[in-house]
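Q: A reviewer asked whether we had any structural model of the full assembly, not just the individual parts. We don't, so I'm hoping you can provide one. Inputs are below.
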Amino acid sequence: MSGPLQHYLKFFEEMGIDSIRLNLPASQHPQASRLAGKEGRGEGALGVKAGSASENVFSPPVLARAAGRAAHMREIRDDLGDCVRCKLHRHRTQIVFGAGAEHAELMFVGEAPGADEDAQGIPFVGRAGQLLTRIIESIGLKRDQVYIANIIKCRPPQNRNPEPDEIEKCSPFLLRQIALIQPRIICALGKFAAQTLLETTAPISQLRGRVFDKFGARVVPTFHPSYLLRNPAGKREVWEDMKTIRRMLDERP
Ligand code: URA
Ligand code: URA
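A: Here is a predicted structure for the entire assembly that you could use as a starting point for your response.
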């Protein structure tokens, strides 16, 4: 089995769904037993070349660039310091700065840390985060090959929405991270990230399914993984958005 159907099934498997309903009776569906089965797939996840590198990653220029970027990212973190620029510092356990590869081609931006992220200091590690990890893996990437951050870096009390003054104080640091990483693609997770990054009040239902140009990148809004936990049917649209991202990654810049 290969092609779109395999990729679609693989996506659901990565998202933790291990069975599906086939509309045809099994007897009429020659592929049924193989579709439901989990036997090995020769070509590796999705049959895509994960992290295909046109440049030797151990060549001196590449290593120097990587070291430079890591140092620059530490500078941004140092400038943020033990931030008290907004009122959220009073409630937080720790700042959730962002995590991943400074040379990532793909960046994910969520809303704000939740309880698990506040406790661990790492974005997207709770239930929604585990789903995001599977979404990333569904397009043949690992979490450490992308960069993950949020619009704001401290957990709002009771996970309320970030307020305008908090975004205003915090977003310059996210913008510096974007400018440093220079991702080719930014996936905005959910209404809040999409509206903030794109400076619009349009609903997520109108934003997703489209690709925007901003920050020198293609911005792809999609549903937030927390929304998918409540509304699993939305995974179909997210899968469409992930295929768009995979296709754009495969186009050489
Ligand atoms: N939801 C978010 O938007 N960000 C996180 O880091 C975790 C949950
Ligand atoms: N509403 C949201 O706030 N986010 C989504 O991802 C979908 C609906």
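A: Points you may want to mention in the reply: Residues 65-250 form a domain with the Uracil-DNA Glycosylase, subunit E fold (CATH 3.40.470.10). The chain has one domain: 65-250.
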